[in-house]
Each structure stands twice: as structure tokens, then as C-alpha cells.
């Protein structure tokens, strides 16, 4: 059963990383993306057994990936919000009539 949990956590990380890469295509803005790629390569070659003691690491890895994706999405939302506010201010300035002395 312990081996099943390890395999589930490994697959969960791999699926989440693949999904994040599809949602945020190259150039990847995913924070720490190169590290996640290295970890994925390692996990693809490593066989997981209950004695490897990787359960906590896989939990932490999945949480770290989720945190990075949330950070990326919040950053993109802030950039979009800031750019839309900037456009609104620019339009407001153009609409004001010039006062003549």
C-alpha cells in the first residue's frame, strides 16, 4: 500500500507539472521550472519503493509546485490589472479638454 501512495504522489506531481506547462507555454514563466524539470527527470528514472522514504518529499514537492503556479497566476493577474488601470488613466487624460488662458 505504501508503494501505491508513492506512485500516486509521483504521478500527481508529473501530471500537475505537465498541466502547468500546457497552461503556461514556453517561455515558461513557472517559477523554478528548471528545477522541476530536473526532479521530473530523476523521478522518471528512479524506482520508488516503500524503503526509499520519499513520501514526505513528494508531498512537499507537490505543494511547492502548487505554490509556484499560484504565485505565477497572481503575478499575471496583477500585471493585467495594472495594465488595464494604466490604459484607463491614459484614456482619461486624452478626454480632458485643454484650457486656454
Description:
75% of the residues lie in helices and 0% in strands. The chain is mainly α and 101 residues long. The protein has one domain. Helix 1 packs parallel to helix 3. The radius of gyration is 22 Å and the shape is elongated.
Name a few traits of the molecule.
101 residues; mainly alpha; elongated
Outline of this structure?
With about 100 residues, the protein is mostly helical. It is about 75% helix and about 0% strand.
List the helices and strands and how they pair.
Elements: H1 2-23, H2 33-45, H3 55-95
Helix pairs in contact: 1-3
Distance between the termini: 84 Å
**Largest beta-sheet characterization:** none
Structural class per helix/strand content?
A: mainly alpha
> What's the helical proportion of residues?
over 70%
Domains (count): 1
* Average pLDDT score: 84
Amino acid at each position: 500500500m505504501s508503494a501505491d501512495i508513492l506512485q500516486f504522489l509521483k504521478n500527481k506531481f508529473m501530471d500537475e507539472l505537465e498541466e502547468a506547462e500546457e497552461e503556461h507555454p514556453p517561455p515558461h514563466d513557472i517559477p523554478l521550472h528548471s528545477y522541476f524539470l530536473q526532479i521530473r527527470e530523476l523521478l522518471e528514472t528512479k524506482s520508488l519503493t516503500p524503503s526509499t522514504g520519499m513520501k514526505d518529499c513528494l508531498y512537499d514537492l507537490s505543494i511547492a509546485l502548487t505554490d509556484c503556479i499560484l504565485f505565477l497566476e497572481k503575478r499575471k493577474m496583477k500585471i493585467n490589472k495594472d495594465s488595464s488601470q494604466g490604459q484607463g488613466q491614459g484614456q482619461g487624460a486624452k478626454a480632458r479638454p485643454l484650457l486656454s488662458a
